[in-house]
## 1
Amino acid sequence: MAQLHAECERNFRRLHRLLPNTQTLRAKLRLSPEQGGPRGVELTVVEVTRYTSLVHIVSVQQGPDWLDDIDIQVRVYRDAQMAEVVEWCRDRTIPWALCEPSKLYARDEKWQWNLFLSELLSYGLGCTRQLTNTSQ
């Protein structure tokens, strides 16, 4: 559990570097491997409450048939400075603790989804650095 908390804290910092205005409803960022390219990922703040925000992350253009579109919800806990994946594919909500074995969940599914978020945000940070360097 400590590793998951640490990863959620790192994801908060990564997300905050990409999208610092998570307290602004409909704040948006588009990450693309090439500037103005047709493919990429879009991050949008879809809910803001007193202590949290909800960021919706979707792929902008559909990929190959064998690759599912990215469609996840990330809860940003501004007071605790953590960000965690809470839903994906619009129909699967991830409980904080997977206490009961279920055919629907892998034992480490929450960990896997938050590692995916980590890789996605790290890639996004690399894209923004790359675009910043090429536009100078």
## 2
Amino acid sequence: MNFIDSVRILHPSSISLLIKTFLNGHERSVKARQNILFSFIIKGLSIAASLVLVPLTLHYVNATQYGIWLTLSSIIAWFGFFDIGFGNGLRNNLAEAIAHGQNELARIYVSTTYAILGIIILVVLVLFACINPLLNWAVILNAPREMAGELSLLALIVFVFFCMQFILQLLTTVLTANQEPAKASIFNLLGTLFSLITIYILTKTAKGNLVYLGTALGFAPVLVLLISSLWFYNREYKKFAPSFKFVKFVYARQLMTLGLKFFIIQIASIAIYQTSNIIIAQLFGPENVTPYNIAYKYFSIVLMAQSIILLPFWSAFTEAWVKKDIQWIKVTMKSLVLLWVVITAGTVIMLIFSNFIYKVWVGKEIIVPLGISIIMALYVIINGWCAIFSQFLNGVGKIKLQLYSGLFAAILNIPLSIFLGKKIGIHGVILSTCILSAISSVWSPIQYFKLINNKAQGIWNK
């Protein structure tokens, strides 16, 4: 491209044409494009902040402490699935209510979900507070025994903040169901920036302490979500604001019918995707969780970027399916598959430069073996393909086959990870997840084509 061509592109009429193209088309597509653009800007800043947070945290605590923190965080995150699928059940039902203009029904869905999850998490919090003193976290995390008391306090603090975030983050579900995920992504950015500032202050004022670290990283997102909930529910989302007046437990079954399937899928996902830190810590020690997690965070940038693009389409697919706009779904899915091809190429480029990036990012002290990077890149490519079709299937509520496939993979993953881990090292733990994810990469596009062509029967249509 020469200078003249560049000037033509930058000419006001050309810019005007680009803006016009971006703003024209199907209303659903325009809304999705706008959300994708703003989400990329917001999530890009959020990813950058989270990447800076890693070396900053490693500067505050050592690699072993950081590995312990990552493992404990993974365990606490499991409790996020105690919503029994109500979050995703709310997302689909709320999107349908909004598509039909049923604002009162939408508010009933929101209020009832807040009430049910509030009761659930209160019970879970009380049980955890009773059980926690009996747990030996040093053994669970394969940490030095003298850290048992510190880890018990850390677990309690992190769990309390988690419970608060568990309820408050329903706001992001409401925004996403209304096809405004870009607004929801702001919360994560603000929380990460707040965490960055807090950890930076800790590096200057206190010695490395896991309790301080957990408090800082737990408090930040809770404060952001609390302020955001008060802001949105008292302004533009007032018509959906949770209220005791609109709590109708008779709607719980409707929310839970689909939500329970999502819940089982989520539990299966824990066994498939969230157990690696623990398995690695037990087989190879907590210090080896750090290089694995560095590689995961690096390559997960690709999945984060894809999720930014895919996020608006879940509720958009729900709306299109309800309104029987099959042509829009077909065109959109073709575009998303082309996007996956680009993402795959980008992942390969990231793999080529991975060793260089690691050294610049976290320094030469943390060594990430090439084998881990290769298998992690494969993991990203496979899951990127599956994510396209699961977004459609989740949106239209046809998830029974996904449920059975997830359960099958969940049952196999832990023993397969341990077996391959003992045979070939840390690489084997990641390879197990890749192998089981590949199963979904086969059946999910088949189910999509059957549904979109009105040929789905039996389990393919459930």
## 3
Amino acid sequence: MTRLLVVGGSDAGIAAALRAREVDPDGDVTVLVADAYPNHSICGLPFFLSGETPDWRDLAHRTRADIEEHGVRLLLDHRAERIDPDRRQVEVSAPGGRTVTLGYDQLVVGTGAVPVRPPLPGIDLPGVHVLHTMDDSFAVAALLARRPRSAVIIGAGYIGTEMADALTHRGVDVTLVEQLPAVLPTVDPELGAEVAAELTRHGVEVAAATTVERIEAEAGRLRVEGSGGFTAAADLVLVAVGVRPDTALARTAGAELGVRGAVRVDRAMRTSVDGVYAAGDCAETWHRLLEQPAYLPLGTTAHKQGRAAGENAAGGARTFAGSLGTQVVKVFDLAAARTGLRDHEARAAGFDPLTTGTTVDDHKAYYPGATRLRIRVTGDRRSGRLLGAQILGAASAQVAKRIDVYAAALAAGLSVDDVTDLDLSYTPPFSAPWDPVQAAATDWTRSLGERGVLPATVPA
């Protein structure tokens, strides 16, 4: 009977444990969870704090009972401290200050990521928070219960923009500060500018191209100072400037690190240490378009990596297919999404990219409620291959599902022109005979032709 020990009770760890039990129903599977909240959706924290999901218990993908019914043993509030790969043992800090040692035959490390805490004077003051765990959310919720007047959010990525929405929903005046020139820097600046306009329309003060330099306590509140004379007073400061892989445990075993300091893994999710796998935000991912390791910390990726790691640790032979970095975020009434490579990323990878922009109705204009979608398509001039796409539009305009069409096309290795041949559904309330994703693809091939270059896949 194989003893599988999984460290981490979030997406990757639970996926690994459940898949291992499916592959080997007789296996002994134990999951160490550093807190008391196994398999809770960290992606859902902004919606708990906004009040849209009022009960934090609803953030659980599965309850503890659900997981244990599958034959998985959960050890809550157990933190793994050190791995001894020679003895195949893990030293664990248990409740009550105890230290215990657990043996394993196979080990999956799913320790996730930790928030980046910049070396900012005042970052440790009361009222300054990060948002990454359930306990983080409870601390912010306790502050919100005191009805703060204003908040400053440092970082305008996914968490920053979602929390600007969430805190505004709670009646808090929000200032959103971003060091780069545009908010939501994972999409092109043209789309980021529209997200900034949406934030402003809902009362959020946006300070782009601004570097926060210090936080100070002043008269019972917090004072945030930055470049260009920026100042703002707040009752709450939220730092959301990204994450880094949590590799402290894996390093105790001597595991090699790779891209951006994440645990190096092969496509079976094996680390450089015999019997040790890694998955989720602590580990590299395989970029299926670039065909090389990358670091793309996403919940969807963590689930898939965990499934592969658990299957292989239980004796299977699964290869992780890879990730394209497909993402979507809702900011008030807008949704912004991307997949694959943007123009500058494609150029850095050695492609000859062309990116075109298309504005098109999300469905037939004669049916009420049509809204405009902005779609940017990136393809390779030489081969016509689809390299990436971005979409921005109303939250009701099926932005997420439309970016998934491009993601599927990328996974299949299709050309941009191939997208126009896909048999997509149509009815006037939802689309047009040529869906917006196809209209944008057609604009790309037309634009390529206007530039005097046509790949073999595009008929002249």
## 4
Amino acid sequence: MKKRKTHSSGFKTKVVLEVLQERETVQEIGRKYDIHPSQISTWKSQFLSGASTVFEKGVSKTEDDKEKDALFKKVGQLQQENDFLKKVLGK
């Protein structure tokens, strides 16, 4: 069974920037790095959709980040309650 390749964000950025320079086609770049052209197109879309946040002032959290923070807080609270109940019940 073939293991999936994982690429760093730096590598993905490098590939996307090459695509945006338009010196080579997506197919040529895909062959160069042994990556399927549709994967490169996905990375390009992700890159461009996040590009608008580069010049925003301050640190702004996305809705996903806010939701994650709330969930981590809730998990921590439940863990403390669980530990307290274990002590009280003597388990």
